[in-house]
Amino acid sequence: MAYIMVDIESDGPIPGDYSMISFGAVIVNDHLDKTFYGTLKPISEQWIPEALAVSGFSREETMKFDEPKVVIKNFSQWISQNCRDRPIFISDNNGFDWMFICWYFHHFTGKNPFGFSSQNLGSLYKGLVQDTFKNFKHLRKTKHTHHPVDDARGNAEALLTMKKEMGLKIKLS
């Protein structure tokens, strides 16, 4: 199974009413050398300035981004080209990241290559260390910048550390 670490940025709290502005994905392997980055034109007239500000883009900039259907189709093709078997979606905050990716896949392509489930990196770490108060973020090497590829890479680094240094039993690409 191929674990794909994903991070998204949006201009609001939910898909449909608000828009996914950008996302990044990294295939979790020893090299972290297979990445995807997409910027998406808003699909809604609604947006929250404070939410958009996290991404570092202005509304005017986002209006010039790529059509979401094209970006999502390209992401689906990238997944197919880089995964020999079933892709597994994993993220730091899968409740948030997953709902946008899943919604966009179903809305724009009619299906989600990840299927109907996702994994949460934070919960995985809490189980590994057997402490629900612990946080994995100190395991990142790449600085958390809110650029989704940087953030996905940092989270992938944390997952690799869990495997290599903490004994997590997981099969990665």
Automatic annotation (TrEMBL):
Keywords per UniProt: Exonuclease, Hydrolase, Nuclease
Signal sequence interval, chain numbering: none
Matching SUPFAM superfamilies: Ribonuclease H-like
Nuclease as UniProt keyword: yes
Ranges where the 3'-5' exoribonuclease Rv2179c-like domain occurs: 3-160
A Pfam short name: Rv2179c-like
Molecular function via GO: exonuclease activity; nucleic acid binding
Coiled-coil region: none
Record protein name field: Exonuclease
